[in-house]
Amino acid sequence: QTVVTQEPSFSVSPGGTVTLTCGLRSGSVSSGHFPSWYQQTPGQAPRKLIYKTNIRSSGVPDRFSGSIFGNKAALTITGAQADDESDYFCMLSVGNDIFEFGGGTKLTVL
Amino acid sequence: EVQLVESGGDLVQPGGSLRLSCAASGFTFSEYWMGWVRQTPGKGLVWVSRISPDGGKTSHADSVRGRLTISRDNAKNTLFLQMKSLRAEDTAVYHCVRENWYGFDQWGQGILVSVAS
Fold first, then answer.
1. What pLDDT is stored for residue A97 in this prediction?
2. Number of Cβ pairs closer than 8 Å across A and B?
3. Of A10, A17, B24, B82, whose CB has the highest number of CB atoms within 10 Å?
4. Residue A10 main-chain phi, psi, to 5 deg
């Protein structure tokens, strides 16, 4: 089984910039894995932020951006706001029509 | 407005069976890949399965293959997940999802499946 890795937690100051990453236990992430990113607040269904590495979903503020950073996918939040405090999950297409989520990153804004 | 509404969740004994349904509305159901994602309370997301628009192609996570089976009825705009040989580790909230460009752009609120004796 492929394992997708994410930082368990991260903190950022209001107005600051933070980059969350999404890697593979074995190998490098590329655009061919079609990385997508989801934001989830307690009690709510996840919301898609980014798909196909760097395309923002409709209505997502432009302070959220996606990229490939080294051998990982990355989600960067520029000018973090209090309501960005959430869990963030990445997902990769890992072959054979299989998807796999990372374990999620709990982002604290303080 | 796009809506995905799951039903069929229940408390079931280990080894038991259950069928989840997802009623879709607000979009042309037959044009989209659909899928299921589950989440253990307080924990992360796990992709379960996906199905092509015409239902002819399916794939499942290794952990559920052979026990959970996805299907759809395009005439009724409904997605299904047939679950058998259920285990305690299948306990989770199951979300119906719409797939778009290798991501899930619409999510149902989820339905709880509990497997316990």
1. 87
2. 63
3. B24
4. -155, 150
- The string of pLDDT tens digits covering residues B87-98 is 999 999 999 999
Q: What is the spatial distance between Cα B27 and Cα A14, in angstroms, rounded to a whole number?
A: 38
DSSP 3-state of B31:
helix
Cα–Cα distances (Å) from A3 to A68, A94, A102, B31, B100, in that order, read 18, 10, 7, 31, 23
Amino acid at position A33, single letter? H
Q: How confident is the model at residue A67 (pLDDT cuts 50, 70, 90)?
A: very high
A94: left (phi over 0), alpha (psi -120 to 50) or beta: alpha
Cross-chain Cβ contact A48/B108 below 8 Å:
no
Inter-residue contact A45 to A90 (CB < 8 Å) = no
Give the number of other Cβ atoms within 10 Å of residue B93's Cβ.
19
Count helices and strands in chain A by DSSP H and E runs:
0, 11
Contact B71, A108 (CB under 8 A): no
Helix (H, G, I), strand (E, B) or coil at B62: coil
Of how many residues is chain A composed?
Answer: 110
Q: How many other C-beta atoms can be found within 10 angstroms of the C-beta atom of residue A56?
A: 17
For residue A33, the SS3 value is helix
Q: Quick check: B107 and A47 CB within 8 A?
A: yes
> Which chain B residues are closer than 8 Å to A53 by Cβ?
none
- For B24-83, what is each residue's pLDDT tens digit? 999 999 999 999 999 997 779 999 999 999 999 999 999 999 999 999 999 999 999 999
Let me know: does A88 contact A4? Beta carbons within 8 Å: no
